[in-house]
## 1
Amino acid sequence: MQSTSEITWSASPTEPRLTIVRQDGDVIELAFMVTEDLFQLQGHFPGEPVLPGVAQVDWAVKFARRYLGMTGDIARLGQLKFSQLIVGGSHIGLNLDWQREAGRLHFSYHKGEEVCSSGFFELTSP
């Protein structure tokens, strides 16, 4: 494995190209491919790129703010589970369920019917 100092970082996309599969109010399903040129895969891991969990959490928040109008500061992250690696080249679905009144966002990443990761955020003010 390369050390951080041996990795050459390059400018590359920080988000996948998204497709909205369906949206019903505050629930949305997005689809994308984890292309191996994504910045988050650089150095994680050379020769076997894996999408880091922190990137999955970041994208869930970012896309909920963008597509569902979620606002407020994150107060709590709960029931975070990473059950399946998301590797470069994977076709992934992301389900976001914004429970506006409760100030809670549930998210799950999946490959077909298989859940890769899931969890929820609670916000300080919905």
## 2
Amino acid sequence: MSFMDDFEHLKIQLEDIKLATNNFGRDKLIGRGGFGQVYKGELSLDGRQTMVAFKCLDRKHGQGDTEFWKEVLMLSRYRHENLVSLMHFCSEGEHKILVYEYAFHGSLDTYLANKGLTWTQRLKICIGAACGLNYLHDPSGTQQRVLHRDIKSSNILLDENWNAKLSDFGLSKLGPANQQHTYLISNVVGTPGYCDPLYWEMGFLSKESDVYSFGVVLFEVMCGRLCFEYSNGQLRILVRMWQKLYDEKRLDEIIFQDLKENMDSDSLNTFSSIAYKCLKREREERPTMAEIVKELEIALDQQEFSEDVRKRVDFEEISKILDLAIPPVSYRSQKELFLLLSKGILLSGVAFDK
């Protein structure tokens, strides 16, 4: 059996794609990336019309057949709820087209500065993306480990329910799941700002390189902005500044201000701590993706606990009552306050119970 025979069931005719995209009409164009242009259109899948995305290889962007077939190989063999699904592909002449499930809400980078994307939603998106990357790093069965090599917020897609889907596997590298050593890569690829410094400077690639990139994304989510900006035509990377402010306990200066009011302090502390650890210079100090998933889930629990308390408690009224407490009551978070009240406090000789 040939290499192509493995994927015969995924092939689709170019004419079907032209029909779905109005011959690649401008009204169907939804984006451009390092791979090429992306269109949307409907195909008949399982007997019903389904919206999908068509990613068309543009060789002018520097990617070619190798990256195309790597994506076909990757997404046909690796299936996870937090990886974008490959529906079909087309390889006719110069036309190389990947057909994906449609990401209704686009990519995460476009929502970083949107205050409508709540802290709770952001936590759930980060957990989903972390689960997808954890699956790639530690796959089950006989699958090889996958190093993504281009983790960034624009490669995290969002479906109609705001579920995160990792995408763009053209630069990924496969290796044995139990492999512990580092690859030495001569052709370093990736996106400035997101790349592990040890990989970017010396070509040393490991699964911790993806962890670093994911840490940058976590900071973007928390700060409500991309990790870079252009000033006077020069690219300025913000990651080191973010690290410095965290070290100096000045995180408040960079947190997305429109979200601060609804962020539980415990949740933010848990989230920022694991994000910071991802950016450690020494790779052995960085957490695994499994550890990141665990910490993000704790941050979500803390946030949801806080929101539940807010729904049940009028804190303005409670603060007036606390002025009468004997002895005086102090607390650092709403969670601490709730636990304190649940035990009862003395108000001028009267017990106040939950």
## 3
Amino acid sequence: MRGLNIILPILASIPNVFCLSKSRSVNDVPIVDLGYAQYQGVFDVNTNTTSYFGVRYAAPPVGELRWQAPQAPANVTGVQQADTEPSPCFSSGEIAPPDTVSTSHGKRQTPAESEDCLFLNVYFPGDSIPGTLLPTVVWIHGGAYNFGSTSMFTGSDLIRESEDGVVAVIIQYRLGFFGFLAGNEVKENGVLNAGLLDQNFALRWVNQHISKFGGDPTKVTIWGESAGAGSVLQHVIAEDGQTSPQLFRGAITSSTYLPSQYLFNDTIPQSLYDQVVEQTNCTSASDTLTCLRGVDASVLQAANTKINTAGLFGTFASVPVVDGTFIRQRATEALRQGKVNGEVLLAVTNADEGSLLVNQSDPLNATFYAPQLFPKLSSNETSAIEAAYANLGSLITQDSLIMGESIFVCPTHFLLNAFQNRSFKGEFALPPAVHGLDIDYYFPTGKALSFNNTAFLNAFSQSFLSFVISLDPNVKVDPANITPQWSLYSDGNTEMKFNKTADNEPNVTAITTDDNLLERCR
């Protein structure tokens, strides 16, 4: 994807700098015994949060475990010091250099990217494990299924926004072709959607272990942004909505990301597999997948980056597929049938989801742009898209709307309708309201916010944490929160719009979804 270095930092958010320099003595921080390992975290007196960085939840997915389902970690002896960010998973393209993590044990760099990356961070309020189990929020990072890591998000922000009312977990999962390689060969001798299975394995880890950190496994909400929200959608439809045991009760999506989701052996994902084989010199092997498992990670990573950055501006090659087992049908079909996991949904989109992902210097007529975005479109479908967007502004505006609505906004409305009478809808409209800008307002630590208004920050971020605690944004963690009564989306297509006035005052109001938008989403 051209323009990657411009888009990546905004989509994934700017890495945070953690300042834990006033931590307690490490000997005072609780040791948590997971059975296979013991972990001791760090306490930050500035945020009143105890953090466990780099808790291993699965075995290293290397060698024979490359493109296999995640496996349980091996037993380790001794107490593991959970005071350093884990190695990020290999990503597609260059991101900003590793951020500096400041702890009571000195400054350390976030480790370099690695295939051994199946770790998570856990955060709870205070300096001791909560005596009463708290609702738990699991954050799944975005990044187009191709980049992102735990180090980009400060879990203590979520603790603060909940008024010390939740336990937070931030997970990592395999990315790019390490996590989303498809094709017949992978189906026959490995697993498809390995990155989604990592996430599922992490959720099962939460179900088994989060009570040891003071979290309530029966009150879990999963939340993600962009591909993280797309991941939430995939878990909502996983196993046709019959996941057992149920791993979450609440689901939050911020900019639901749903690019074309092909059957695993469709010509497009099969062609991508063949390209990976060719670029890793495995073409002549009798068993190409075995050959790929033996390729050095750096060689596979080079192919991963080259292929994923070569496509249409704003698009990425390695994404989830219909695998027939975990994801049994296309998301649009599963949602239409109401086959969903979870009890209640809160979904938010940004007012301008598309412009950041459109090449502003090379706009295309919808007749040419739509088929590049969706290669399987028929000529009749292409003509319908052209007619729907022809009178909505310049070519750049049309392309931005097509990208934003087809990939993010319309999938969000499909999801809302699947949770009939059980969903809330919000819109982040704070200018410029581009894709990814809302992340700064969930995780504001270290950010230069364009609208650093406490009332707005609380109204926006606390609504999500209120939902985590009670499945209802109207049951406010802070009674002073200015967000008005938030109706269910089914009550007249009602949304809550978060914006500011011309006088730089918070403007949080209920609106009705534009009928023209809903018509374009049909």
## 4
Amino acid sequence: MKNIRNWTQIGEPFSIVPSPHSHIISVVVPLPSSSDLYQDLATKMQVIGSGIQIKSIEQIRNPRLEGLYEFMKTNVAGQCPQSNTKERYLFHGTKTDAVQGITDYGFDDRYFSSSGRWGHGAYFANDPRKSHDYTNLNPQDQTRVMFSAKILLGIPSVQNTDNTSLNAAPVGYHSVQGTGGQYEEYIVYRYGKALPYLEVTYTA
């Protein structure tokens, strides 16, 4: 775009994703491959292996989920020192047939994993190699999908041994940070504490 007013940009550029029509739950809009957000995420994904190819990174806009997430963020902030919600951007791998459900309805606690090391919760990782293990191939085009999600860790309970009986964070905590394995895992147990933000389609 030609700068006819000779303005100087302050800060990083960002994309504006319009709200979906009232009859549509969510929309996804491709990120420009030249954007810093795209490049940063694509670089992080490279640890999966030398054969990985990013097909698209799309930003998700879902006003209902965003409203719920902001409500939970305010609630968690009121229970944390210095109102620090410890919001993190973490990875979540999923099966192809679950992608649209997550985009539309988020990480619904009715469908949380009950077979994880820390009980019945939604599991996330800061290393995409861990999340990659939970993806599968789309038989139509051989792609996989992984989400980059915003997570409210709040006050995390750090646990280095398995506790499969958990269906909520321990009293006084908002999440669980599971350690002791090859990868750290982060688990939330309540709907609205995780927001699907970016949808990454790739081959590997």
